[in-house]
Write a structure and sequence with these properties.
Length: about 230
């Protein structure tokens, strides 16, 4: 009897703890279920809204959808935005559920993750707009170079596209707070090196062409010879 009494002694305390924790757990589970349903609905709304705004056309022409397909993402940029919206809603519901259950440490971790998702969404929008703008700049430079008769017009177009993409990637990484100081300094050093190399290449290899252009547009005044003057033929 003593052993049985000792084994059953903690039972009332355990039952009381379950009575205390059961309602918050049920409420938390209900919140998670409602958050999951809301996430699915808002994901559907976000995808439909972006497609109505022709966002998928912009990302397709920018080449971002092709990058996601090549990387095995299994969805396009519009679908990825919908997934981020759903993940944000689920995390908000998870934070609420953990807070009700009294798990403040887990709620703090989920809060930090939830606060980072809007940055991912903004970075994705910046990347899509930047790649589309880089494509526009490359086409404009190539067409203008072809009109001027430049043989290296496609090369100049690709070069301008690469410069714009590098600048956009820098902005995206800065938005995500990834290696801000190191990436910024590396980009400035790379840009300075490319500029110096282009200046040296033009100065050493295009001296005659530059002299011809300067002489054509801004001809130097030649000194008048003996017997030459405004009043003599």
């Amino acid at each position: 009897m003593t052993i049985l009494h000792a084994a059953l002694a903690p039972l009332p305390a355990i039952v009381w703890q379950w009575q205390r924790w059961l309602p918050p757990i049920l409420i938390a589970l209900g919140i998670l279920g409602g958050g999951w349903l809301a996430a699915r609905f808002l994901r559907f709304v976000a995808i439909k809204t972006l497609r109505a705004m022709n966002f998928h056309i912009v990302t397709e022409r920018a080449g971002l959808d092709g990058l996601l397909t090549a990387g095995g993402a299994g969805t396009d940029t519009t679908g990825l935005m919908g997934m981020l919206v759903a993940a944000l809603v689920i995390l908000i519901a998870l934070i609420w559920a953990l807070d009700i259950a009294g798990l403040s440490a887990g709620a703090a971790v989920a809060t930090r993750i939830a606060l980072y998702i809007p940055r991912l969404m903004v970075a994705l929008l910046m990347l899509a707009a930047g790649l589309y703008f880089a494509r526009f700049v490359a086409q404009s430079v190539t067409l203008y170079g072809n009109e001027l008769g430049l043989a290296d017009a496609p090369v100049l177009g690709r070069l301008m596209r690469s410069i714009v993409i590098a600048f956009v990637v820098l902005m995206v990484l800065d938005e995500l707070h990834i290696g801000q100081g190191l990436i910024r300094d590396s980009f400035l050093i790379l840009l300075g090196g490319v500029t110096l190399a282009a200046a040296l290449a033009f100065g050493l290899g295009g001296r005659r062409w530059a002299a011809h252009v300067l002489e054509r547009d801004w001809p130097r005044e030649r000194p008048q010879g003996i017997g030459e003057g405004p009043g003599r033929q």
